[in-house]
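Practice record 12: protein with heme C.
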Amino acid sequence: MKISKNQMFKGGKNWLVLLIAIFLYSGFAFVSAQEGEALFKARCATCHQAHKDGTGPKLFEVRQKWENGGAKEGSLNQWVRNWQVAAANDPYAQQVANWAPTAMSLFPDLSDDQINSIFDYVDAQPLPGAGGAADVAQVGGAGTTQETQSLGWIWYILATIFIVIILSVGGVRRQLRKVAGEADDQLTYSEEVRQWAWTNKRYVGVGVLVVTLSVIVSLFLVLYEIGVYADYQPSQPIHFPHDIHAGKNGIDCKYCHNSVEKSKSAGIPTVNVCMNCHKQIQGNDDHQIEEISHIYAAAGFIPDGGGQYTGEQDNIVWNKVHVLPDHVFFSHAQHVAVGGVDCKQCHGDMTKQHELPRVVPVEELNEIDGNIKLTRPTLTMGWCIECHGEKEISNGPMTNQGAYYDEIHKRLLENDKSLYESYLKDNKVTVKELGGWECAKCHY
Ligand code: HEC
Ligand code: HEC
Ligand code: HEC
Ligand code: HEC
Ligand code: HEC
Ligand code: HEC
């Protein structure tokens, strides 16, 4: 029983083809899952969750739901692209449209593959454990993290399979060769592996190349995911121009975002705030009249003949632009009122923004005068952390203006003199030195 070199090669080649196939396939699965997650978070998560009704209904296994409900084929994807068209063509979709008074946004740019990747991602979300309403959000947050980690596992599992295959191939061959009386018993296992690698260097080379490429591709994907917020600019029900309001007409940000100094969230103005001015300002040209008519529709206002309210109010559903995951805590009051950070630092110069608001990429933020220069993509953890490491809580120890910072410096000094002095080595106390790098400050 002798195995020729040729037969061995053949075996090696099959394994190689199989391995390449596994890597490519898992690469695609990985990309698709990543795309679904990124799309869901960017486009749908403001209104939908997997397992809980919110502004929109829960989306877990919605494909089955539509199928069981007797929806027409293709009608679900049509719904996601443009629910009005779907509702007009399919009685089932018409029924769904009555779920809530608020309307879903339109996503005409999404392909069937993209929509399926979103549903695949949603269906893969684990069911949160039973618990009080308060910790549902918590569980949801943990679920997202778990999902990200489980994608990482694919690579560990594959790597393990890879190693096991290589070892067992080596082992089997060694056994066979022993039986065939070919093996040189003096050689250790590792020497033999090296010898085998040398004789098959072309195949080993290709294998190494495949593995290296996969690592590069997956690194790239991870980086891609981190930057996924930058430039995000969802559509809005009304084209509200910030430059005309906050720039040309000099309206203070706080007039509309009135909780920005007092609470966690900045707040989005209700339609009544718009009506304070737009009851009178009805628009000068067709474009303005058209856009402002959406305000009237929501306020239930008929401008003709002196103006009159019908009493039927509806909220304008603005799509949230800056969205942090549920497990992150961020407070505007802490940054704007206490830290004295300008809106421009994080949102760009909104007094010049004519287009809809978007997540301004960090490169553009860096071009604005007075902004601290950062390198990590806007809204990522690296971005928050980097600023906390750079930004001082005051302009140096002796030049404090605010009583608040005097108090902090005094307490630090009393607490631990040497620690305080080490903080001041670079002549500044940064947010980090006050605990701004502690996980629990930002994570629930
Ligand atoms: C502005 C909020 C909003 C956004 C954003 C949004 N939806 Fe919806 N969605 C709704 C509402 C509200 C409904 C319920 C139907 C109605 O009342 O008009 C709905 C219904 C649905 C349904 C039908 C659910 C069922 O139980 O039959 C699907 C599927 C759906 N949305 C998918 C998506 C997807 C996918 C995205 C992201 C690409 C998305 N939605 C983004 C608000 C939204
Ligand atoms: C007249 C009211 C008004 C004023 C004044 C105003 N905004 Fe807004 N702002 C809005 C409305 C309405 C939205 C939601 C619509 C949208 O996103 O297009 C919004 C959205 C935003 C967003 C995006 C929010 C998100 O969803 O993440 C940011 C950031 C923002 N404003 C910052 C500012 C800053 C900074 C100023 C002052 C320079 C300012 N705004 C002044 C009404 C106003
Ligand atoms: C340190 C960075 C930072 C500064 C400074 C900042 N914001 Fe924000 N802003 C954010 C982040 C992060 C979010 C997303 C918050 C979330 O999803 O919980 C956000 C969200 C918003 C929103 C959407 C609604 C909300 O509260 O989630 C508005 C409006 C807004 N900011 C307005 C402002 C205005 C006006 C100022 C200045 C007075 C300002 N922001 C200063 C980081 C900042
Ligand atoms: C403090 C007064 C004030 C408030 C509050 C206000 N606006 Fe305006 N708005 C104006 C003025 C002034 C103009 C500019 C008219 C002009 O000179 O062309 C304007 C213009 C507009 C236009 C037309 C812009 C264009 O494209 O030319 C839209 C749309 C609009 N506002 C929407 C809103 C919405 C939505 C809200 C509520 C979130 C709002 N406004 C709140 C004063 C206000
Ligand atoms: C432009 C710089 C900057 C960016 C970007 C920034 N922060 Fe901050 N942050 C500050 C400053 C300054 C303070 C300190 C305020 C003070 O004096 O207490 C602070 C304080 C905090 C605190 C309170 C820390 C404590 O010790 O109590 C939390 C929590 C926080 N930031 C979360 C975030 C999160 C989450 C992000 C990213 C989404 C973020 N920050 C982005 C500058 C920044
Ligand atoms: C200054 C605020 C801040 C601090 C401090 C901080 N984080 Fe984060 N973290 C964030 C933000 C913001 C995100 C969301 C980033 C995103 O979605 O890209 C995040 C996301 C995460 C995620 C999830 C990644 C994902 O893909 O959703 C993990 C895990 C995490 N942080 C762990 C930690 C640990 C561990 C620490 C302490 C060593 C820590 N964080 C400290 C702000 C912070």
